[in-house]
Amino acid sequence: xxxxxxxxxxxxxxxxxxxxxxxxxxxxxxxxxxxxxxxxxxxxxxxxxxxxxxxxxxxxxxxxxxxxxxxxxxxxxxxxxxxxxxxxxxxxxxxxxxxxxxxxxxxxxxxxxxxxxxxxxxxxxxxxxxxxxxxxxxxxxxxxxxxxxxxxxxxxxxxxxxxxxxxxxxxxxxxxxxxxxxxxxxxxxxxxxxxxxxxxxxxxxxxxxxxxxxxxxxxxxxxxxxxxxxxxxxxxxxxxxxxxxxxxxxxxxxxxxxxxxxxxxxxxxxxxxxxxxxxxxxxxxxxxxxxxxxxxxxxxxxxxxxxxxxxxxxxxxxxxxxxxxxxxxxxxxxxxxxxxxxxxxxxxxxxxxxxxxxxxxxxxxxxxxxxxxxxxxxxxxxxxxxxxxxxxxxxxxxxxxxxxxxxxxxxxxxxxxxxxxxxxxxxxxxxxxxxxxxxxxxxxxxxxxxxxxxxxxxxxxxxxxxxxxxxxxxxxxxxxxxxxxxxxxxxxxxxxxxxxxxxxxxxxxxxxxxxxxxxxxxxxxxxxxxxxxxxxxxxxxxxxxxxxxxxxxxxxxxxxxxxxxxxxxxxxxxxxxxxxxxxxxxxxxxxxxxxxxxxxxxxxxxxxxxxxxxxxxxxxxxxxxxxxxxxxxxxxxxxxxxxxxxxxxxxxxxxxxxxxxxxxxxxxxxxxxxxxxxxxxxxxxxxxxxxxxxxxxxxxxxxxxxxxxxxxxxxxxxxxxxxxxxxxxxxxxxxxxxxxxxxxxxxxxxxxxxxxxx
Length: 758
Prior knowledge:
With 758 residues, this protein is mainly α. 70% of the residues lie in helices and 0% in strands.
């Protein structure tokens, strides 16, 4: 049934009454709507100065209790205490004890003592509850480094009409019995405060002081607090403030004194996210005076915030010293704020002292700016800073180091200093950082001769060199800096070999062995472990990939530089011609393999032809040229298998030029994507027949056997019966493969028997 009100059907009086009621109800609705909007406006006013992330979090939440909970999880330094109270007043459900305790602790931090008593009276119902409240207060005062004045301020705030004398007596009793605070001391200070509260002007205070002994920290605090409240509208200057405090100099030794005696103002206890705020002149004068105290004062977090908010031109390092020296745990937000100021105007020594003490709690931005300044201005200190940077969690370290390098290289850095930076990155096992620095050197504005000097520095630094480092240097020098200095290339290449096959270690294993070798490289590889051999070939592969990315003329330059090193007499890694040829051929194979992979067949063939042409032009090593030609033939046949026989015909009168390339030609057939597996076998068979027909003397190499074995293993289901029979026949003809063939035959028979039994 509809609940909508229906107008009466008869009578003018009824209609008039209906309209009157309707107007009243609409007016009430409009009034409630206006009130709701005003409430919303008040709430927006209290949240306007909140930290942006917190404001976004609160905007997603409808429940007021949940909003207050989220706000309480943030540091109180970021929250205006009025924002807590605004949400507290709007609560629809009572707070649980844990949340209420957290709210009280936050208000105690902001020295909102009257509000704390208000919550206590509203929610605590027994003496046990009161004792719990005071426990929370004492713990908060200790954590906030405000024991000296916090309790007395809390007791003074209890002297209101809302708190009856009996309740106040209970407060005093608990403080006396549980915390051993003299009742006489409490009464004496409360009486002093009441007397001070009656004073009207500075003359009254002078007269009072003449008749009252103001000589301990509490009486000094009460006196100065009330005095500054009274005279704040007179706008006393810094000299007048100094004179008044100097008469009570002991008070400045106690953390919390500044925020207690100084008049409170909006945001005097938190960092507002506002561009402007108003500060009483007396607060500014008071904070400026603090800077003259140097080492004779101690500050807590409330004091530091008060000073920052009332004196925009405060001395960041002096403030840090006064705050940090009291030995309490420092607040993260304060330390980051002070360091940000030191980054703008502090000295390296000041920045380093903060970094040394608080490295783990620093935010990314001030931390990176600090380390960048230290790096640019003081490398000795930078070493310790960078060591700490590397102690951070891996995910944060990976984020911060690139940011640091960007800042560090935003202005010119001497090349020898970059060398020092590389060493720091190396000793901290940070290859990504090293690559980043090398890119910045290569892509920066360093002259070519400076870059060449830089690479020579690194290549001659035995503390730095590793296989990976040499490869990184090659990539940077050859691909980015485009530096092709023959001697340096040859020297670095030999070091790469020495770092992968350590001759002294490997040859020591050969002692006592009667094994004979024709060539030194054979002996090295024989006694090397599987891992050492793999490292050796992987290094050649990685360097070959780097070379393959260059233009053909530059590839020829690198090959020429290595060959020049081979022939110079300085190359001692191996001395036999066979050993040098073995290294060069393997390197060239890797270069051509990556050229083949880098694009389509046409572009690969064109680049290989250019490489061969430049090798001819540079009169480089003939073995490298032969390997390059072999790779070209392989790729040509892989792209068009019919060219295999055409090449045999073309070289029929100069067979010696082709004989070393026949194996590559067969590999081109067996790996061609243009043929299916049985067509490959047919082309292979036909090619061997043509070799005999044209009079070529060729013996199947081991690499071909491996490729045949791969076919039998991977594609045996696709092979025709004739293809299998022919391949088995080829294997049986090759020396050393009989055992492999027998194993394959057994596996085949076993599979056939298994199918038959099923």
